[in-house]
Amino acid sequence: MDRAEDAEIMEAAKRDLRVCITLDHDFHAHLALTGGGRLSVVLLRVQGLDAKGQADLITTVCRQCESALSEGAAVSADETGIRIRRLPLK
């Protein structure tokens, strides 16, 4: 799916009950416009993290936000914290 449009990626994630993890701010906008249903998107708001740093941040987000991610949420995470906005976004 590396060449798929954002909407295609989100539809596949929703269908397969997966969470989208991205560095692209557009995914939260798409989520707000579509309502998302039970789809969740995690936006990593970081620059320059190596693969291990990204994996550690993703693991932390998944553990701390498990309930919200299973119900549908827009999550933003950076080096200082995690913000959870449950769906539908307003």
Q: Describe it for me?
A:
The protein has one domain. It has four helices and four strands. The protein has helices spanning 6-15, 26-34, 51-64, 66-71; strands at 19-22, 40-44, 73-77, 82-86. It has a four-stranded mixed beta sheet with strand order 1-2-3-4, sandwiched between helices. The relative contact order is 0.18.
What would a concise description of this structure say?
With 90 residues, the chain is α/β, with parallel strands linked by helices. The chain has helices spanning 6-15, 26-34, 51-64, 66-71; strands at residues 19-22, 40-44, 73-77, 82-86.
Question: Can you tag this structure with a few keywords?
Answer:
90 residues, 4-stranded mixed β-sheet, 4 helices, globular
List strands and helices in order, with pairings.
Elements: H1 6-15, E1 19-22, H2 26-34, E2 40-44, H3 51-64, H4 66-71, E3 73-77, E4 82-86
Parallel strand pairs: 1-2, 2-3
Antiparallel strand pairs: 3-4
